[in-house]
Amino acid sequence: MNVLWIFAHPEPRSLGGSLRDEGLRTLRAQGADVRESDLYAMKWKPVVDADDFGRAASTDRLIVGSTSKDAFETGELGEDISAEHEKLTWADTVIIQFPLWWYGMPAILKGWFDRVFVKGFAYGVQRPDGRTARYGEGALAGKRAMVVLTAGAPEATIGPRGVNGEIGDLLFPLQHGTLWYAGMSVLPPLTICGADRVSPEQYETAAESLRERLRTLSTQDPIPFRRQNGGDYDDELILRDDLAPGRTGIGVHMSSSRTV
């Protein structure tokens, strides 16, 4: 197994850093080949600008989508972006690890997706029939992804009736709107709550949960998101009336009611 571990935490001595180290040891002990993108250690530039696209951006107006595609196809993307593309192409599994900050990713990780998931590489890919290959199809199809998340909130508050909301809803933009959109199969996330108050015993429980998830990376069932081009959506990409009748919201885009 080729695993790319993307880590977005500014403190390597944090709970997240310790779990990252534990995860890497576990994977290597299993015989996996592992590469890392430690974004803070890399001093990753998180903002998209014309410098990312070389001569492809030499026009008066920067249109990010089309310009990024031109730069990708002509080999003029920034070297740091191309290096991440090489890692993603190599990997068959991607672990995305970060702390939950203000209901989302740290800015540096959002910037990694903004700069790396360019048109032509992660989206904007056409099927032979002319339909856009996305939501289960695309250039990254066949790869697996899993989120490893640390959150300061107590576990009871992150659930269907918890004040912070259900974790599948909080991660929907990343898991469905980014990873699944680009074609990757998305495994249920591993969430470690109460991150600022973890005792040694609680840490060992969290570490064992991570080790177990990593041992079964290739056999876990992914979240059953619906495929855009699998027949569940009409020509306007609206879910068919006979599927999840009377229901709305995020849950209708999964083919079962399984809680993830």
From TrEMBL:
Keyword GTP-binding among UniProt keywords: no
Domain Flavodoxin-like fold: 1-213
GO MF terms, alphabetically ordered: NAD(P)H dehydrogenase (quinone) activity
Pfam family, one: Flavodoxin_2
Record keyword Nucleus present: no
Alphabetical UniProt keywords: Oxidoreductase
SUPFAM superfamilies cross-referenced by the UniProt entry: Flavoproteins
Coiled-coil boundaries: none
InterPro entries, per the entry: Flavodoxin_fold, Flavoprotein-like_sf, NAD(P)H_dehydrogenase_qn
GO cellular component, one term: cytosol
Family under the similarity heading: Belongs to the NAD(P)H dehydrogenase (quinone) family.
Entry-linked PANTHER family: NAD P H OXIDOREDUCTASE-RELATED, NAD(P)H DEHYDROGENASE [QUINONE] 1 ISOFORM 1
Name of protein: NAD(P)H dehydrogenase (Quinone)
Organism: Amycolatopsis decaplanina DSM 44594
UniProt lineage: Bacteria, Bacillati, Actinomycetota, Actinomycetes, Pseudonocardiales
